[in-house]
Recover the amino acids of this structure.
């Protein structure tokens, strides 16, 4: 493989050395996407011209195609000629040269369902409107991908009977189709059989909110009867039955909202053995702040700061952020944290006030853990002059995210230690390991290594597990706790490179890879380039600043 293409969500194209080779033009990107989704079959030039320039005469369309082919080769340089097969009649991607996320999803099976977790957004969401003919083709491709994933997820759920396996299977199906009532009912039944009636009722409330939002509809009579049965019956509800096939349900609407995509990522997936397979992560929301002593004209401060903090937090890949605009109606009404958790499934909510006195602003913020009775787990007050509001927003957002990232990470690590080890996902195992690494106690440090090794083995496509295991290997060498430092350094290099191949946008993985290249490989210029990219992706990542400083120290 020479190139990694991500077509789900916003399109991305990376070489194995983390070089961004995504074409800048939308038509050029669309051309590459058509070839990727058609691979390994070649596509006729006439077909490409028709899809991308349907409103032009044939000769003009073919001339435009020739120009786009040159642009595509320029963008893909130096690997373009290695991955593209171009002749007089057709174009194709050469077999085995490009990894495409859609192919992984389509290859998923009941025995290997983990690739379904890649479906965390709309196919080519940034390429709508390229051409009417392309739009029609793209709509068909989106439906094909969703149908294939939905059918597989329905099969996985249909094969489950034990609540411990029904719950993750239902969550996987809901990650693909949030309006699937059969999956919601299976989730409600499974929670009830486990004795968690509160969770079952909460599942119904989330189902109701999704149906109202997406379809402007109420839950079906069957779902409402199940809710009544759960509320009134003291005996366990009958086990979940298989969900109806897709043809018997309301057609799925297109999911375009960022908050829905975040919901899909957060639901996660488990394999058919019942072993979890990511993706974990805290769900965080930032409520527009309450205004005290300000005029109506200054109300924009509230939403502006909330959006700035949300954007800064979104750079941390392990969190799932709810759009602050989605929470705005709660800010103007009751600010009911319980209602917010019920509607959005949020774990942590950042709330606060802005108070103005003369030319001074006081911003008071607090972080609530909504899972434990809205407990305040962090708070901070900022006093600033009002002469430069944009700089104030940037400064406060940077300080806030730098402080609450480790705070949430610590709380999440403490939470996962309370779960049975057999239920641990790769995400859980990484969280268990992180504080053990930092203590630098040899026994606990070795326990961390075992957890990270298990996480990598269980989920070989989970980038954070590889990155943290590489970090652990470096500490192993630095502390002289290994009899074979050469093997540990080689393993650290392999793990770090694998991490940034799996997720070229993970700032922490890039920073760790940079540290490996400076500390182990002594390739300082390459290390600094990786650190620079990590800081561009997340300028508030403390690890990136610290490790880049080490690289500069090595450079002298």
């Amino acid at each position: 493989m020479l190139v990694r293409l991500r077509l789900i969500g916003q399109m991305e194209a990376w070489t194995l050395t983390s070089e961004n080779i995504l074409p800048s033009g939308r038509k050029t990107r669309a051309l590459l996407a058509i070839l990727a989704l058609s691979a390994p079959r070649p596509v006729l030039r006439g077909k490409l011209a028709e899809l991308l320039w349907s409103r032009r005469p044939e000769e003009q369309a073919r001339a435009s195609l020739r120009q786009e082919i040159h642009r595509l080769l320029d963008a893909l340089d130096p690997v373009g000629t290695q991955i593209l097969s171009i002749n007089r009649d057709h174009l194709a991607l050469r077999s085995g040269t490009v990894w495409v996320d859609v192919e992984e999803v389509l290859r998923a099976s009941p025995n290997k369902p983990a690739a379904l977790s890649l479906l965390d957004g709309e196919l080519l969401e940034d390429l709508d409107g390229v051409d009417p003919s392309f739009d029609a083709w793209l709509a068909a491709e989106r439906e094909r991908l969703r149908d294939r994933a939905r059918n597989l997820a329905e099969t996985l759920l249909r094969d489950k009977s034990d609540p411990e396996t029904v719950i993750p299977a239902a969550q996987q199906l809901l990650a693909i189709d949030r309006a699937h009532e059969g999956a919601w009912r299976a989730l409600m039944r499974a929670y009830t059989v486990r004795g968690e009636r509160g969770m079952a009722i909460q599942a119904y409330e989330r189902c109701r909110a999704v149906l109202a939002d997406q379809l402007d509809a109420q839950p079906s009579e069957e779902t409402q009867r199940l809710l009544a049965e759960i509320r009134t019956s003291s005996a366990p509800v009958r086990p979940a039955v298989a969900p109806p096939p897709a043809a018997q349900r309301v057609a799925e609407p297109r999911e375009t909202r960022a908050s829905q995509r975040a919901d899909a990522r957060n639901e996660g997936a488990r394999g058919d053995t019942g072993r979890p397979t990511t993706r974990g992560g805290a769900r965080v929301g930032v409520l527009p702040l309450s205004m005290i002593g300000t005029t109506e004209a200054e109300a924009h401060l509230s939403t502006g700061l909330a959006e700035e903090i949300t954007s800064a937090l979104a750079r941390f890949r392990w969190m799932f952020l709810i759009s602050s605009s989605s929470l705005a109606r709660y800010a103007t009404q009751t600010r009911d944290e319980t209602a917010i958790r019920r509607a959005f499934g949020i774990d942590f909510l950042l709330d606060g006030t802005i108070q103005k006195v003369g030319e001074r602003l006081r911003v008071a913020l607090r972080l609530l853990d909504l899972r434990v009775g809205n407990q305040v787990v962090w708070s901070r007050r900022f006093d600033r002059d009002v002469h430069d509001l944009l700089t104030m927003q940037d400064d406060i957002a940077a300080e806030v995210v730098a402080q609450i990232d480790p705070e949430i990470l610590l709380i999440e690590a403490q939470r996962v230690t309370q779960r049975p080890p057999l239920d641990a996902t790769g995400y859980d195992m990484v969280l268990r390991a992180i504080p053990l690494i930092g203590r630098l106690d040899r026994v606990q440090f070795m326990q961390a290594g075992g957890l990270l090794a298990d996480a990598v083995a269980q989920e070989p496509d989970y980038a954070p597990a590889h990155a943290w295991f590489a970090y652990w290997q470096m500490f192993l060498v630095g502390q002289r706790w290994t009899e074979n430092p050469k093997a540990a350094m080689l393993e650290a290099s392999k793990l770090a490179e694998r991490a940034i191949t799996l997720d070229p946008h993970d700032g922490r993985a890039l920073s760790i890879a940079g540290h490996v290249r400076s500390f182990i490989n002594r390739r300082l210029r390459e290390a600094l380039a990786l650190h620079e990219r990590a800081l561009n992706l997340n300028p508030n990542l403390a690890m990136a600043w610290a490790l880049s400083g080490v690289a500069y120290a090595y450079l002298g």
About this structure: The two ends are 36 Å apart (CA to CA). The domain at 154-247+254-267 is CATH 1.25.40.10 (Serine Threonine Protein Phosphatase 5, Tetratricopeptide repeat). Confidence is low (pLDDT under 50) at residues 235-279.
